[in-house]
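Protein data sheet
==================
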Amino acid sequence: MKVLVIGGHFSPAISVIESLQSHKIYYIGRKYALEGDNAISLEALEMRKRAVPFFNLNTGRLQRKFTTYTIPSLLKLPLGFYESTKILRQIRPDIVLGFGGYVQLPIIMVAKLFKIPSVIHEQTFDAGLSNRAMGRLVSKVCISWETSRKYFPKGKVVLTGLPIRKKLADLKKEKFAKNSLPLLYITGGSLGSHTINKYVQLSLKDLLQKFAIVHQTGDSQVFKDFESLTNIKNNFLKAKSKSYTIKKFLSSNDASYLMRKADIVISRAGINTVAELLYFEKPSFLIPISYSQSNEQVKNAEFLKAQGLAEVYDENHLTPKEFKEKLFNMYSNLSKYEKKKNDFNFETAAQKIVEVLEDVYKKEKH
């Protein structure tokens, strides 16, 4: 079976790809992390590493509100349909699997015209705009949470759960800081977070008095946070520089390893990050994106807080001084962060999605 995977939410896509090893996999996504930025995206780098054929797709996106980007984005949609047609004719996949996001729209619509079956997966508690739009065109909709069911046609929905990265890295593969200090893992997700990076930059010397730090910054060529923090590490930290490991990106294995080993994680609150924090029962200091779709990240963060594992702070009001003080206070009270007894079936979700794909393929292609 030839499976064309469309990027959207990257972490569950990786987990499913790992469960699709007996099939031929192709991947469509974004070559560059952000529009107007020339930093190569993590999904493009990861597919290259895994020897999975990667196709970049230039297309416009649907937007909930009219902005200065709305018309230019709409004008790119015809290009997206043209490129989607070329890619599908080249690959001739047996089935398409989408993980939300604007990239999947033209691919799934053209696949429908070519009579190629499609399946989508929804990660959030609600439903993303792209998945809602595609719900009636696809063969099946896999959902992560029961709360998403109401947004899709009844006969198409399968509750699979949310796949997370399963493999844990061998300690020898990546030389993180070996230190008697507690481990603080800081991540802004696959794109990095300029907001979190600035908080860290302003507090770094004090943080290193209490923690050994692994910091994933992203590779924005606009803000150049990695370069700024590397300069601080090399020129101003002296002996403490050994306790500060800085990376643009982390492999899926190394990120999972750090999730497991860290004493505290500082992060945004994307649904996949929240799921991994929940899976590893990790105390977390969350700064959700305040402008995310339907206030999605705030909802995710509050969910994890309700599970007993997180503190949540508003990026619009948190000062650098409060950032440091609240983090130190959290570490002083780590024993209070314990997950409530819930079973979210993260381990079986990827295989369930593969079973849905195989079932759709058998019914619609034979």
Notes: The chain has two domains: 2-162+346-365, 171-336.
